[in-house]
Amino acid sequence: MTVRPRRLVLLGHPVSHSLSPVFQNAALQSAGVPIRYEALDVEPGDLRETLRGLVDEGAAGNVTIPHKEAVAAACDRLTPLADRVGAVNTFWVDDSGDLVGDNTDVAGFAHLAIGVLGEHPGHLRVTVLGAGGAAAAVLAAVEQWPDCHVVLAGRSGRRLRNLAHRFRIVQAVCGDTVQSVRDAQVIVNATPVGQSDASLPTPVAALAPDAAVLDLVCRKGDTAWVRQARLAGHRASGGLPMLVEQGALAFERWLAIPAPRALMWRTACEAS
Question: Are 169 and 80 within one domain?
Fold first, then answer.
């Protein structure tokens, strides 16, 4: 982008739990950029009007649950990756006044996965729990790894089938999360389950002994699922590494300067 944004926001519902304002504002202050990053809780019915106002203001920002797919549909232009995913988590207004959508979740997830699985993930049986924009970003990352096969699991059969049709690495869809994880080497929770309570997306006892757990949910002290998985001997991580990396990439898209990743990570860790 060529125009520096006049405002930076996070769109979601709810958003009060998000750590993004904490580390983004630390990064902005460190870089000497006189903008504040703020969280906006936007009801789905108010999203279109909010976006129109943000475009008029020359704003940019991030998008979280449940708006990623709706923002993609509202953009004037998508990057090829955002178009592939069908979801937007990073947006800005370009110098012609168009609303542009990108997806930095894909690279954020790859960063998380490499931290847990090693430098060159591949030849894996993966189960992805969920059928929304976060699940699509995971699939867009995994399809770049060699010889990986995915089972999609969740409650919405139609959405699962739509994702399976779009991503050829998906071999099966399953409505039973317990059955879907039995043979998986990597299980990714791409749902909000565990964000606000101790709910588990699937029982830890159902996992194969050597399975790795990647939970995209970020919460203080990690989710109950991640904690239980670690206690059972599994490699497991919450979504904080993904959150910070996607945020760093978004920072670079908006401002065309390097993101202070070490500061962002330290600030996020201190807040979590």
Answer: no
